[in-house]
Amino acid sequence: MFIVVEGIEGSGKSTLSEGLAQALSTEGHDVVRTREPGGTPISDAIRQLFLRSAFEMSPLTEGLLVNAARAQHVSALIRPSLVSKLTVICDRFTDSTMAYQGYGRGFDLDRLREICAIATDGVEPDLTFVLDVPFEVLRDRIIGRPDELTLFAVKTSDARPTKRLKDAATIDRIEKEDEAFHNRVRRGFLELAKSPKHHLLDGTMPREQLLKMALAKVHALVGAA
User: Are 7 and 182 in contact (CB under 8 A)?
Assistant: First the structure.
């Protein structure tokens, strides 16, 4: 079983992924929890280049980088785990590429979909959760993290004061994007979530309620298999 958790920055993906992994492990599933970009040494190295680079990147460059990381991730970790009948829970997959580089950056969706298809080589999620939150939640959750960067708030349309932050390295180049970009990405996720294999969840709900709803969908999928 391959489960993916998607959403904009600060939507609670990592929290839900961790909760699902713990709950399913308790139920007796052998769970592999991973993330994108990342999941293998090569993919993690590309992640650092993608998120921490000070260089400007074209939308095509971004799309190729994340899919290079994904190709290695799929071949070295995701596919072998699925073949071994393990349950894979992944924080981000192809929907993030479509939302960020497609809807967010404006790269052609059909071309981007073709690139993703090459990288995944037929591997698709059985179930995808999309956590939806408004930009204000993203802003508050990102800035609310300890030792974060004031620059992020400067690029939003909200001029309210924010706390002084200590470590500029803690917010990545995607999180620093402005409100308009993140709203385009959010609209992209909402469009992608219309697929039958997707389940849209309100990311502002209490984490226990979110986990309960997500687990119910997983149990329904397992029961139908």
Answer: no
- 13-26 vs 207-224: helix crossing angle, rounded to 10: 50
Torsion of CA 69, 116, 101, 148, to 10 degrees: -30
3-class DSSP state of 2: strand
Q: Does pTM surpass 0.90?
A: no
Fold adopted by 2-224: Rossmann fold (3.40.50)
Beta bridge partners of 200: 130
Peptide bond between residue 37 and the one before it cis (omega within 30 degrees of 0): yes
Q: Is the pLDDT of residue 146 over 50?
A: no
11, amino acid identity: S
pLDDT of residue 156: 37
Q: Half-sphere exposure of residue 135, counting CA atoms within 13 Å on the CB side?
A: 19
Q: Is the separation of the CB atoms in 214 and 16 below 8 Å? A: yes
Q: How far apart are CA 77 and CA 38, in angstroms?
A: 10
- Asked whether the predicted pLDDT for residue 59 surpasses 90, the reply is yes
pLDDT score at 54: 79
d(CA 95, CA 44): 19
Grade residue 176 by pLDDT with cuts at 50, 70 and 90. Answer: confident
Range list of β-strands (E), 70-213:
87-91, 127-132, 198-202
Residue in the structure block whose two tokens are 């924010």: 162
The reported pLDDT for the residue numbered 58 is: 95
Mutual angle of helices 135-143 and 179-192, in 10-degree steps: 120
Question: How far is Cα 74 from Cα 86, in angstroms, rounded to an integer?
Answer: 14
